[in-house]
Write a structure and sequence with these properties.
two-stranded antiparallel sheet; mainly alpha; single chain
Length: 193
């Protein structure tokens, strides 16, 4: 049966085939012959992706969504800087303030991920991206603007190092495939953006 037949769930055989294909997934909630609306998107994602572990899927999707936002943002960021009357030197300094904290904090986050759950560190990284986005809207002066560039660099190191630590700490059936999904997510985000 195809994906559309699984989506409809009109007969018991489709439900049985679905259970045999995807196994015992705690997110699968089949009520009679129907899927709950809350989890329907998971079935579409599972049907699109080949057989990958749940943790790989979640990390790859979060990486894709974050990089999609970043690629879309980076398209308009130079125009934003020009609208704020920044010179070319200041634009270069802005990029320096983003990438220097990534280089400095990545090893520190790697050490922290042994003491603190990497999921918490990744969540803090995503929270930092949100704080950065609000800061770009509200910044009153150049010093605060540069401070938010540093926050972006720290947030990026928190997210990326923690995401890799999550994958490394998981028992994966095929680690090469899991990291291939993780590292290819920015390419797909770039293509979609």
């Amino acid at each position: 049966r195809g994906v559309h037949d699984l989506y409809e769930f009109n007969d018991k055989n489709a439900v049985i085939n679905f259970k045999q294909r995807f196994g015992k997934n705690p997110e699968v909630q089949i009520v009679g012959d129907r899927i709950s609306n809350y989890n329907r998107w998971i079935y579409w994602i599972m049907a699109i992706f080949p057989k990958i572990e749940k943790i790989t899927r979640d990390v790859a999707i979060s990486h894709f969504l974050l990089m999609f936002g970043y690629k879309t943002f980076s398209l308009y960021f130079p125009l934003f800087l020009v609208s704020k009357n920044l010179s070319i030197v200041q634009v270069g300094y802005t990029n320096f303030l983003i990438y220097l904290p990534i280089a400095i904090f990545a090893p520190l986050v790697g050490l922290l991920s042994h003491k603190i759950n990497p999921v918490i560190l990744a969540a803090l990284g995503i929270l930092g991206y949100g704080i950065y986005a609000l800061g770009m809207i509200l910044f009153p002066n150049l010093f605060i603007f540069y401070l938010f560039q540093i926050i972006l660099g720290i947030s990026a190191s928190l997210f990326f190092v923690s995401s890799r630590a999550i994958l490394m700490g998981s028992r994966l059936e095929n680690p090469d495939r899991a990291f291939a999904w993780y590292y290819s997510a920015p390419s797909y985000a770039d293509a979609v953006a």
